[in-house]
Amino acid sequence: MVRTDVQLMLDVKAGDGNSFELLLQRYRTPLVNFLFRMVRNREQAEDLAQEVFLRVYRAREDYVPSAKFTTWLFRIATNLALNSVRDNRYQKLEVSIDAPVSLDAEDGDERTMDVPEKHPNIEQHLVEDARRKMIRHAIDKLPEKQRAAVLLHKYEELDYAEIAKILNCSESALKSLLFRAYEALRVELAPLVAQRARQ
Amino acid sequence: MESRILGYVDGRLKESERLEVEKHLAECAPCCLRVNEFSAVAGLLDELPLIEPSAEFDTRVHARVAAEPQPKAGWWAWMHFSPRIAFAASMLLLMALWLGYRTGTPIAPTIPNDDQAMMQDLPVLEDHDVLQNFEPLKDLPSPVQSDDDSDAQQPQHM
Question: Of B7, B38, B68, which is closest to A186 when you measure between CB atoms?
Fold first, then answer.
């Protein structure tokens, strides 16, 4: 029988290290992906994901299952990501005085990550690469809170109530936030949207 | 309708809500277009691949967890058995008892029983000496001896 997240966390609280290991296995990939899409840097995303697990471990003794485990977990992750995004923004502002950062330099991590090992057609690969870049840049251009809402909604498939708790807003405010985010993405990705809508 | 379009696209609406939206979409071309476009956006977002954490990720988490200090003990933790603390506490207790006994009891040398009895009679003996050497008493006439006393007492003046 598969133990729920809350059961595992209560076992961690009771001193069971194996349960912490199970939570780590269960959530490391979703967390790293969420954080990577938030901060756009793989190394930083992994550091932040480690920090999330560390904070979960530190809080084990005070853990009370008052909310869903994923709500708590992604709330920690979202707060860390938002802080990191803000810090990075200031750092980039400082760096840009002496050495402006190009878009290609920002995409360095993406390029190494997405290149398929054996692509049948280099032209097709370049087209797909360009599409992904456009999609990533469209997500990056979203305000931080809208970006977090889209990522939690689309990729983590959390329900509205959970995301609202994570972002500390009402459900109706969240729906409005998501609508505006999808509107912005629709405009930013208009050529791809039209192309896809025709298919 | 705005708040329901995304839920409709994602299939997260209740059955009754879904039917209401579909009824509206059948009559509203702009909303219908918006649903198609949002579906296209959702499809585009699906094109982004997942990444896997690096091979060192778990090792780093384990190392950071292992470096965490042990949880702080509660106020009652001092009661937990510890040989060193127990030994130190018992030695302290013994020393305190010994010191208390020494300071609380007056220092008295051991006195043999005969001498102790004599010391208890000292006031009486002192009175006897005073009376015997008291000059004015010597000038007094000898007491008249009764017949009863003659057997019991020796005459003072021979």
Answer: B38
